[in-house]
Amino acid sequence: MENKSTITTDKSYHETMVAIYELMDKGEQNLTEAEIENLATMAQAAEKYEDEVLKLKPPKQPQSLPEIIELFMFENKLSQAKLADKLGIGKPKLSQILNGKRQPDVPFLKAMYNELHIDPKFILEHV
Q: Both 72 and 97 in a single domain?
């Protein structure tokens, strides 16, 4: 691996990440001062490489009711049919809301809050 404070290739990035995970697996309380300094240096280099080369960005936050519902479905491994059952609505209604062909009604919005535990502020701001 090249200088731990500079990463210039995907290969060295991968090697650095492996080294970081190996140190993290030891547990912070089991690291020497030198290992802690090395970990901090490698983490800064990896972050810089991610920002400048890989251009990793935090995941996009949902900006609409359909987006937050789709995120919920993804995180909970639910199909539209299973989600419709969970919300107590018909599958066509859910599909129409997700596709923007129908506005959500009050019972649907209540179900989003009660069943999916979506933040009510988010719901109100995106209706």
A: yes
Residue 27 forms part of a structural domain:
yes
Q: Comparing C-alpha atoms, which of 105, 4, 81 is closest to residue 49?
A: 4
Residue environment code for 43-70, b if the CB has 16+ CB neighbours within 10 A, otherwise e = eebbeebeeeeeeeeeeeebeebbebbe
Instruction: Name the more confident of 101 and 1.
Output: 101
Q: Which two tokens stand for residue 110?
A: 């209540």
Is residue 47 one of the residues assigned to a domain?
Answer: yes
**Tokens 């089991």, residue?**
30
Question: Is 94 exposed, middle or buried, given 0-12, 13-18 or 19+ CB atoms closer than 10 A?
Answer: buried
Is the pTM higher than 0.70? The answer reads no
- Above pLDDT 90, what percent of the chain? 79
